[in-house]
Amino acid sequence: SSGINAEYGLAKKSDMYSGFQQQDAQEFLSVLLDTLHEDLNQGDIKRTFTMPDGDGKCDREVAAESWNFHKQRNSSYFVDNFMGQYKSKVTCLECSKVSITFDPYM
Questions:
Q1: Going by C-beta distance under 8 Å and a sequence separation of 6 or more, which residues neighbour residue 101?
Q2: Looking at the whole model, is its pTM more than 0.90?
Q3: CA distance 53 to 56
Q4: d(Cα 85, Cα 89) in Å, to the nearest integer?
């Protein structure tokens, strides 16, 4: 059946699906979407870039720059429809420098 073929295909990508243990549905969906994205990715995966620095820029601008860099390497239906960004803000306890990043998640 196609369900068995799908499970076998995922087992080749992730060891956690090779046995008979029960798996979390969210984790299964995450591995499935990531696997499909990898197979259909039209982005330039060899391209490297430095994440933009948020010093003095508004969050919207930094988020847009981060997303544009991500899209240059990751371009697929799954990125367009199932990915987003989360904001991370870290403040150094010694010098009080604030670092704000926007990271992709699926």
A1: 51, 54, 62, 66, 87, 88
A2: no
A3: 9
A4: 13
